């Protein structure tokens, strides 16, 4: 059966790799991003793989436009799977002391409100159909407060809890919700950041792990397994010990 998959942030990185993966399954794709030309190139690649594709250039922070477009698309083509992937990162700039305020606000607006703007408009329709699947791209940064990326860590833990709450609420209605917590993935976002990047993987490998987790309707899809486990443990340590252990782990971000 042909599935309809809506992906935000599909113009590059993990979102693009997910679009290409579902295109190979000949899904019907709705791809959102802000960069029209990169989005059009991804759409062409997906069409060449056999998918039917609609693209839309939209900023996920625009609640009214997101709501209107997502509802309109879903009315003509009911969405089976929505992947709220669009995201930004910010952090301490080279030579600076704290992330720039505007960058921090943009991160929270995009990574938190953008996720709500993507998912909320679909909930009434999914509830009435009693089916659907929701994936939210968080990060292992949700498990650990990093001094150089406060807004990013806050945004990713916010959507982790948002997704887990929704999962409990929506499961009795036949709707699956998964939160995805990747480690380092080789994309333009990862390239912005100066840190060591242990266990970094390609966006294609990340997409394959995400798709496998979604197939099993996993609550939290965190990878690579060992890095995610160690990060969770680290985040649970008492404040003084955690800060001492992570004092060498500082980085800068090109905001
Ligand atoms: N790379 C990593 O190591 C890593 C690790 C954990 C989690 N993640 C998460 O994975 C997701 C994808 O990131 P990525 O690594 O693939 O980075 P990326 O290559 O920079 O892709 C980010 C995508 O988000 C879109 N986007 C950003 N702001 C947007 C906005 N306001 N409205 C609409 N689209 C917007 C971008 O589209 P335009 O350029 O067209 O605006 C782009 O398609 C993010 O949520 C990120 O936090 C990444």
Task: Report what the structure shows.
With 255 residues, the protein is of the alpha/beta class. The protein is built from ten helices and seven strands. It has a seven-stranded parallel sheet, sandwiched between helices. The termini are far apart. It binds NADP nicotinamide-adenine-dinucleotide phosphate. The site of NADP nicotinamide-adenine-dinucleotide phosphate has 30 residues, from helix 1, helix 4 and helix 7.
Number of strands: 7
Distance between the termini: 42 Å
Oligomer: single chain
Spatial shape: globular
Order of helices and strands: EHEHEHEHHEHEHHEHH
User: What structural category do the secondary elements indicate?
Assistant: alpha/beta
Uncertain stretches of 5 or more adjacent residues: none
Strand arrangement in the largest pleated sheet: 3-2-1-4-5-6-7
Bound molecules: NADP nicotinamide-adenine-dinucleotide phosphate
Which descriptors would you attach to this protein?
255 residues; 7 strands; alpha/beta; binds NADP nicotinamide-adenine-dinucleotide phosphate; 7-stranded parallel β-sheet; 10 helices
Provide a short characterization of the protein structure:
This protein has 255 residues and is α/β, with parallel strands linked by helices. 48% of the residues lie in helices and 15% in strands. It binds NADP nicotinamide-adenine-dinucleotide phosphate.
How would you summarize the topology of this molecule?
Layout: E1 4-8, H1 13-24, E2 28-33, H2 36-48, E3 52-57, H3 63-76, E4 81-84, H4 101-119, H5 123-129, E5 132-137, H6 150-170, E6 175-182, H7 188-191, H8 203-215, E7 220-223, H9 225-236, H10 239-245
Parallel strand pairs: 1-2, 1-4, 2-3, 4-5, 5-6, 6-7
Helix pairs in contact: 1-2, 1-8, 3-4, 4-6
């Amino acid at each position: 059966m042909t599935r309809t998959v809506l992906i935000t942030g599909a113009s590059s990185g993990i979102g693009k790799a997910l679009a290409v993966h579902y295109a190979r399954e000949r899904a019907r794709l709705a791809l959102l991003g802000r960069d029209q030309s990169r989005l059009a190139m991804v759409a062409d690649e997906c069409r060449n793989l056999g998918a039917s594709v609609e693209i839309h250039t939209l900023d996920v922070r625009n609640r009214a436009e997101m709501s209107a477009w997502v509802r309109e698309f879903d009315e003509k083509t009911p969405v089976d799977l929505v992947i709220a992937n669009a995201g930004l990162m910010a952090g301490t700039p080279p030579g600076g002391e704290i992330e720039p305020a505007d960058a921090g606000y943009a991160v929270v607006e995009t990574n938190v409100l953008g996720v709500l703007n993507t998912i909320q408009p679909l909930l009434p329709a999914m509830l009435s159909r009693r089916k659907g699947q929701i994936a939210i791209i968080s990060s292992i940064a949700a498990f650990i407060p990093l001094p150089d990326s406060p807004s990013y860590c806050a945004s990713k833990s916010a959507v982790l809890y948002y997704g887990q709450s929704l999962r409990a609420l929506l499961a009795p209605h036949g709707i699956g919700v998964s939160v995805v917590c990747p480690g380092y993935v080789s994309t333009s976002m990862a390239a912005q950041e100066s840190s060591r990047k242990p266990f970094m993987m390609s966006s294609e490998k990340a997409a394959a792990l995400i798709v496998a987790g979604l197939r099993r309707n996993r609550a939290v899809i965190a990878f690579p397994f060992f890095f995610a486990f160690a990060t969770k443990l680290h985040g649970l340590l008492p404040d003084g010990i955690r800060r001492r252990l992570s004092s060498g782990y500082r980085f800068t971000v090109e905001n």
